[in-house]
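Quick review question:
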């Protein structure tokens, strides 16, 4: 009996040794967006966007079902301020979303640099961070307050 238990214990140890590190826990979309919206980091009110509008704005591909749980907020005025926690289904989709958001930031910088220079600074300090199966975007007037509001890993 001792040999059987010892053998089972060894097998379990070997199996747990093969498990891959899952990395940081994903952002909680509701908690994270609310923390950012309450942080005072934004110069104006942000409104929640429907997925279809956000997909066009940020260059996300796929239908809304692929991003279930996603929360997206954007400026109601003429600023680039935004908060998004995009939920993904796998590592490839997470990488694609991160790329799309960084591409959006670069295109926004090009679009506003000549007529809204204050927006360029916000965009240059934009936060794009992937955690687990989520990607966070925060473009804020006070990027330090935004960074402080992001829940720790």
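Suggested answer, residue by residue:
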């Amino acid at each position: 009996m001792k040999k059987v238990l010892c053998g089972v214990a060894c097998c379990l140890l070997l199996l747990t040794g093969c498990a891959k590190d899952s990395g940081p826990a994903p952002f909680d979309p509701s908690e994270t967006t609310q923390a950012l919206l309450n942080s005072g980091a934004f110069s104006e009110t942000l409104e929640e966007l429907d997925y279809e509008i956000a997909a066009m704005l940020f260059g996300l591909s796929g239908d809304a079902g692929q991003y279930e749980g996603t929360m997206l907020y954007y400026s109601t005025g003429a600023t680039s301020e935004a908060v998004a926690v995009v939920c993904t289904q796998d590592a490839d989709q997470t990488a694609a979303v991160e790329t799309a958001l960084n591409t959006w930031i670069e295109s926004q910088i090009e679009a506003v640099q000549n007529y809204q220079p204050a927006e360029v600074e916000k965009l240059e300090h934009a936060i794009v961070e992937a955690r687990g199966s989520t990607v966070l975007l925060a473009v804020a007037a006070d990027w330090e307050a935004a960074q402080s509001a992001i829940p720790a890993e």
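Why it works: The chain is about 45% helix and 15% strand. The longest strand covers residues 82-87.
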